Amino acid sequence: VLVKQSGEPTYRTPDIAYHTTKFERDYDLMIDVFGADHHAAYPDVLNALDVLGYDTRRVDVVLYQFVTLVRGGEPVKMSTRRANYVTLDDLIDEVGEDVTRFFFLMRSPDTHLDFDLELAQEESEKNPVFYLQYAHARICSVIDRAEEIGFSYDEEADLSLLTHEDEIALIKELLRFPRELRNAADARAPHFIPNYLRDVATAFSQFYDNCQIIGVDDDLATARMHLALAAKTVLENGLTVLGVSAPRSM
Predict the structure, then answer these.
(1) Phi, psi of 71 (to 5 degrees)
(2) What gap in Å lies between CA 22 and CA 242, rounded to an integer?
(3) Where are the domains of the chain?
(4) Mode of pairing for the β-strands spanning 59-64 and 67-71
(5) What digits encode the pLDDT tens for the residues 80-90?
(6) Contact between 52 and 81 (Cβ < 8 Å)
(7) Beta strand pairing status for 74-75 and 67-71?
(8) Of 50, 163, 187, 242, whose CB has the highest number of CB atoms within 10 Å?
């Protein structure tokens, strides 16, 4: 149904018109992001576009499951009829933009998200945003320490010296970055990136705990500094792709 008996259009009608303008602007690909409650509506829109002669293969639909805000282990009760609700601005004011964005991106679209408001503000490894940002800040502190003592690591590094199992494990994680980005884009699955970055942060933590960077043989220290810098680059670029900041200190 596109028009009600009263003559008013249903909400499918403006959706169809909106898509026709996109086709007329000659977009190669249109990605629609809907809530899961639209699962019955979007096929009607696509069918109408098909009848109108548009190539619906250029439209990719992603359905997102609902989000429940949790406080104190209990769902936050909301009711639009009673004007009892939390806006996105309210959420950002409470937990911050970085955390809000990251929590929404770290789950698959087809997975329900329980947004734990207390966890979102916790400064511990349990908070995935804090964990990644802290890993980046830790690397920056190593760089700052090297500069303080006048240790130069600008020369070319002999990476063959990186033979410790934790060094190898970190290198393997870093090499996954281009593939993970491509997979996330191709699958319309941004949650691949947060999950991958956590693997990088975990691998760096193991490396940091078990492989002294400064204060060892200069050649080995240089190689390890270059590995730490590579980890910093991946963490920073990955967070940037997600629209999340990568602070130098915390």
Answers:
(1) -135, 125
(2) 26
(3) 12-64, 67-121, 128-242
(4) unpaired
(5) 777 778 899 99
(6) no
(7) antiparallel
(8) 242
d(CA 203, CA 221): 18
Residues in the chain: 250
What are the pLDDT digits (tens) for 239-249? 999 999 999 99
Which residues have a Cβ under 8 Å from the Cβ of 207 and sit 6 or more positions away?
Answer: 164, 166, 167, 169, 170, 227, 228, 231
82: which DSSP letter?
T
Phi/psi of residue 116, each to 5°? -80, 105
Sign of CA dihedral 127, 130, 133, 137: negative
Tell me the one-letter amino acid at 215: G
pTM given for the model: 0.87
Using the Cα atoms of residue 160, residue 166, residue 170 and residue 176 in order, give the sign of their dihedral.
Answer: positive
Backbone angles phi, psi at 150, to 5 degrees: 75, 25
1.10.287.180, 1.10.730.10, 1.25.40.10, 3.40.109.10: CATH of 128-242 = 1.10.730.10
Q: At what angle do helices 218-242 and 97-105 cross, to 10 degrees?
A: 80
